[in-house]
Amino acid sequence: QVQLVESGGGLVQAGGSLRLSCAASGSLFSINAMGWYRQAPENQRELVAQITSDGRTNYADSVKGRFTISRDNAKNTVYLQMNSLEPEDTAVYYCYANLIRIWPRVPSDYWGQGTQVTVSS
To answer: Exposed, middle or buried: residue 38 (CB in 10 Å: 0-12, 13-18, 19+)?
Structure first.
């Protein structure tokens, strides 16, 4: 079994900051890319940021310069530091990992349960 457990969501005023964390646990062999997606009501789920196992990052244009993704490979954890938050950032944020279990050793996608981020104006 593999689990992704998120934490750090909440309510913040516009211009404020939040930090999301997501820890992977279970029968892990290795983790490839990790990242964050978000889904606002009546919108499709969209990529926010992604980081590879060697630290290469990719961001949505809407969050560049405001959000920073990082990971601690020793802790199997990915972080999303969100600064200068805007009401448009309000959404459920989902952690994502492409990882390989101890068995079977094939890459698969896993998702966290989601954490709500609400930015008030």
So the answer is: buried
Q: Which residues of 62-98 are buried (b: 16+ CB within 10 A; e: fewer)?
A: ebeeebbbebeeeebbbbbebeebeeebbbbbbbbbb
Strand ranges across the sheet with 18-26: 2-7, 18-26, 77-82, 67-72
DSSP state for residue 8 in the 8-state scheme: -
DSSP secondary structure string, 37-78? EEE-TTS--EEEEEE-TT--EEE-GGGTTTEEEEEEGGGTEE
Beta bridge partners of 46: 38
| pLDDT tens, residue by residue, 68-101 | 999 999 999 999 999 999 999 999 999 999 999 9
Which tens digit of pLDDT belongs to each residue from 1-30? Answer: 899 999 999 999 999 999 999 999 999 999
Structure tokens given for 108:
């698969």
Contacts of 56 (CB under 8 A, 6+ apart): none
